[in-house]
Fold this protein.
Amino acid sequence: MSTTQRLSWRVAALASATALTAAGCGSGGGSEDSPDDPITIGVSLPLTGDFSEPGKGVQRGYKAWAKIINDNGGLLGRKVELKILDDQSNADRVVSDYEQLIGRDQVDLVFGPFSTRLVVPSARVAEEYGLLFVEPAGAAPEVFDQGFKNLFYAAPAVANDHYNHLAEYILALPEAERPKSVAYAAMDDPFAQGTAYGLKDKLEKGGIKTIVDEVYPPNTTDFGSIAAQIASSKADMVVGGSQYQDGVNLIVALQQLNYQPKMAAFSTAPTEPEFAKAIGNKTEGILAPTGYTQHADYPSNKEFVEKYTEQFGKAPEEDEANAYTTGQVVAAAVEAAKCASQDEECQQKLVKWLRGNEVETVVGPLKWDDKGRPQSAHMIQQWVDGEIQIVLPEEQKEADLVHPKPKW
Amino acid sequence: MPSASLVFQSIVLGVLLGGLYALLAAGLTLYFGVMRVVMIAHSAFLILAAYLAWYAHRETGVDPLLTLLVTVPLFFVAGVAMQRLLLTRLRPATLTMMSVLLTFSVALVIEGLLGYAFSGTQRRIRLNYSSASLEFFGARVAVVKLIAFGLAAAALLGLYLLMRHSRFGQALRATIQHREAAALVGIDTDRIAGYGFGLGLATAAVGGTALSLDSTIYPSLHWHWIGPLMAIIVVGGLGSVPGAAIAAMALGLTQSLLQLELSTTWAQTVFYVALFATLAVRPQGFFGGRLAQRF
């Protein structure tokens, strides 16, 4: 082997090694025993790493819940205390975090972490110890395929049902106005893909053709080629199964190719506060499903928005609301079962109560099927005149759905 | 079967992408050529430049391109300082290996500082021409991609002219070809090596600014870039700037065209397939000239 050869091999090996190490590394977290008096609730959250932004949102939601409930006299007359560990968005860490919280710290209750990828492994730990596991962020189908008996998702709908109202609306349109072809692009992520494919299944059943179906990896940086295929297909409608960054990139790439669909729907991205700025305000007509709005007039939502804004200086978004909902769901079960401790009898009472009852929350009344799937649907929002407004379903709408969509 | 207009559109996108890749990889191959330093932190500096462009634009509203006036000289000086203060301390015998560790840590420091200063939130420069495009024989060319391509072309042409026609370029090439011989004819090779490194980092300032025009940026983004860039310089022939440019263009185009028939995931693996094919068939790289054969 020549020297060149050896050096080239080395560079190659290093390049691959670098790519591998990029995934992340670990560090320790500490804990202290707390007195028996307050109800302690253990949580592990991705406060650093890939999911740190939504992770911190969930943390704020949990903190707001704890503060509001303590200000109102606590739970069963006892104060609640949160014990939050950082799992660095790492699935191994989240498992050891919950082991520690349940085993060593002896917390009375647990709340779930953020993202499907962390919910599944941590739910397994809770299941093993027989604890109730209410979680704010595992919407993908595989969360509910694992046979968990203690899991409940504290949001209106699972990923596949996010677009249900939109599917109904489209299929009810007169033949002439209905989109005839749809282009789908989805991130290779259980949640993002779940949203787009839920809609795809329903529209295909209704006879609407799929003419582009692209899946891209989460680290995709260039969306030019995907956009070129969608634009060239001239599909009547484009559906993005997206998280934040990829949704923005794809929309800009589509606009650069001057593609003008009659309908455009993207999950997550359009509901983020930064969205309009990020795409230069060319948002007209973009649709998105959302599980939460600050304007919803559910009884507890007003108090939540008001006190949250007081505490954090701005109004809550969806991640915060889902966390708060988790707190409300567990609190309702605790009040009904009149117990909050790790012992089996108490935890079984909590699970059993939730299985058979409806809970009033900031995202509306929730109830669940036997797999923990919530039985409601997401609202559909649309950017109309520079503002995102609820357009579906009828009962909750703030504006009429604009179709066909104006040029962006 | 994709339509002719889609193929043409993909070629246009591939050429634009290839131009950007060429610019981003140029610095890497330069460091390697001059000093056999594998600079893992190059892509971290790209992201740093992108952040500076974004920050200046957000705070003052200036066009991100104007930040080049500051970042190019700043990065040049930082490059010279990094070479003189850090890399010269490494033993020549283990330079290639140790430079990886050293620059790996520099990359981590940059990533950490970016996270600290700007948080992990994903950012995108908001320009009123972000989504504007021009018609080109039936294909659409985004204005921002065209600007990035123009920047790449100008920077690479400048680099080429500098290397070919200036005394400094001659001295740099002499240092690359044979360091001892260059020193014997009176070239201050230490100083030249420092400038060479500075020049490489200056291209990162241009590249990062070009990148910022049409990408969402976040502190850990550089890990996504270093793999493809390393592949480009190996395929192009370590140390050859034209080689890197040709390889970048070829891989950018291939990626864009493969996308038509395969999924995005598969199209992206073209870099690694090319990397391993190169190592198996022609380890000195496909386009490297005599410069590359020196090593």
